[in-house]
Amino acid sequence: MSEKTTDRPDISVIIPVFNEEQNLPRLYERLTRVMSGLGKSYETIFVDDGSRDGSVAMLTEFAHGDAHVVVIQLARNFGQHAAIFAGFEKALGHVVVTLDADLQNPPEEIPKLLAKIDEGFDVVGGWREQRKDSYLRTIPSYLVNKFTSRMLGCSMRDYGCMLRAYRRVIVQRMCRYREIASFIPALATAVGGKIVEVKVDHAERHAGDSKYGLVKLLKLNYDLVTGFSMFPLQLLSIIGFVMAFLGTGFGAFLAVRRLIVGPEVEGVFTLFAILFFFVGTLYMAMGLLGEYVGRIYMEVRGRPRFIVARVLRGDTAVEEQA
Ligand code: UDP
Ligand code: MG
C-alpha cells in the first residue's frame, strides 16, 4: 500500500454497482488504463448497491490488488442515486467523477470532463447526443429533460447522463441536502457553481439488462419532476380551473340550446368517451398528488438514505457501526 489514503487524491471516481459481474472486469481494466494515463492521483470508489451476484467478490479482489480501489458495500439495494451519495460522503478527491458500471459511459471520456474542470467549471455534465437506448427510455427522458429544464430555469440537455464531474465543494453542498428521493444531476444545478455540458459518447450496455424496470423508472422520473418544484401541483389547479370554466360554459350553452332547439339525445357514447377522458385525467392528477404525499411521508420518517455495511480500502475492511 504505497499510497497515503489520508491525503486527498486529485480525483475520486464513483461507480454504483448493482449486479454487474459481467461488466466489472472490462470496466476496471478500461478505467485503470485511463486513470493511470492521466498522471494524477486518484481513487476509484465502487459502491455495491446490494448486489446478489458475484460483483462483491470481484470488487473485493480489485481492492486487494490495487490501493486505488475503495469498495463501499451497502446493506441492501437503495437505488443508484443513494449509492452515489454513499460514494460522495466517502470521496476524498478534489474532483469527483461519476459513471455507470455497465460501460454505457466510456471511461475514455473522463479526460474531457476533467479538462472542463481545469478551465474553471464546477460541474461538468456529460451529454449523450446519440443515446443507445430504446425509445421506451429516450422519449420519456426527452420530455422529462425539457420539463425539468423549464422548472429549474437551468437548461441542460441531458439530466439522465451520469457521466459527470464535480468540484469537491459542489459535492459537499449536495451532501447537505438530506432528502431520500433525490436526483443528483438536477440537484447539482440547485447548489450554485458554473455548469457546462460536454458531448460524450454513449454505448450500448456491455452485458446484462438495465436495472431499471418500469416501476423503478417511473419512480426515478417522478423524483426528478417532483423533487425540485411545486409547479406540477400548480398545474393541477390550473387545469382544474380551466375545466370548470369550460364545463360551466358548456352547461350554459346546453341550457340555451334546450330552449331553442329542444333536448339532445344523440351522442351518449361520445359523452362516455369524454367522461372517461376526464376520469382518467383525474386519476392521473390523484396519482401525481400521491407522489408528492408519498414523498412527504418518506421524508418525515427521517429514515437514512442508505446504510453502509462495510468499507474496504485495500486490505482493510471496516465494518460500519450501526
Ligand atoms: N444501479 C444501482 N442501483 C440500482 C440500479 C442501478 O447501483 O438500484 C447502477 C447500475 O449498476 C449501473 C447504473 O446504476 O451502474 C445505471 O444503471 P442501469 O445501467 O441499469 O440504468 P440505465 O442505463 O438502464 O438507465
Ligand atoms: Mg445503463
Structure description:
The chain has 322 residues and is α/β, with parallel strands linked by helices. The chain has 2 domains: 11-228 and 304-320, Spore Coat Polysaccharide Biosynthesis Protein SpsA, Chain A (Alpha-Beta Complex); 231-301. Helices cover 48% and strands 16% of the residues. The chain has helices at 24-36, 55-65, 80-90, 110-119, 135-152, 168-175, 184-190, 214-227, 231-260, 268-300, and strands at 11-17, 42-48, 69-74, 95-98, 123-128, 164-167, 195-200, 308-313, 316-319. The longest helix is centred in the C-terminal third of the chain and has 33 residues, at 268-300. It starts with 10 loop residues before the first strand and ends with a strand. The model is unreliable at 1-5 (pLDDT under 50). Bound molecules: uridine-5'-diphosphate (UDP) and magnesium ion. Magnesium ion is lined by residues 100, 102, 104, 205, 210.
